[in-house]
Prior knowledge:
Blueprint: H1 4-24, H2 29-33, E1 43-46, E2 49-52, H3 67-86, H4 102-120, H5 125-129, H6 143-169
Helix pairs in contact: 1-4, 1-6, 3-4, 3-6
Amino acid sequence: MSNEIADVLLRQHEIAWSLASYHLESLGTDECLWRPSTKGLHVIVSDTGWRGEWPDHEGYDLGPPSIAWLVWHIGFWWSMTINHSFEDSSLSQESITCPCTSDGVKQWLLSFHKKWKNLLSTVSDEDLLSPARTKWPFQDRPFADVVAWVNIELTKNVSELGYARFLYATRPIV
Length: 174
């Protein structure tokens, strides 16, 4: 069984996860809840966790998201991808919440990383070239497109998280 494609995608994922680990390492809850602008996507706090606000569009006029929204969003798309690719496709955006502390968020995201790696270790190159597992966020495309998308989405989201952390570290304190 050939796994050359899977090996490349897993190595790429490890690079993205290294960046995630760096930005998550010393992240605090106050930092998560800080808003970098007067406008921007944030979370709704409840007894069950943080749930991200859902935008009507993706224009720049939305403003920058909070770190809490970014970590919720990573958990959102990773939950959806795992559930729709390997499980029963029962999850929806409204059903996904993340822990309300930075320590909880770190463990939550680490659990997705570990589960994703374990699941991908069972996938052959033939599986990656087939659309059988491709149900979300695409359909009728090779599953390798989904795996590559996860790598890109993770890299993009943790880059945004890192940028927000730079802003937080240099914010004016009043």
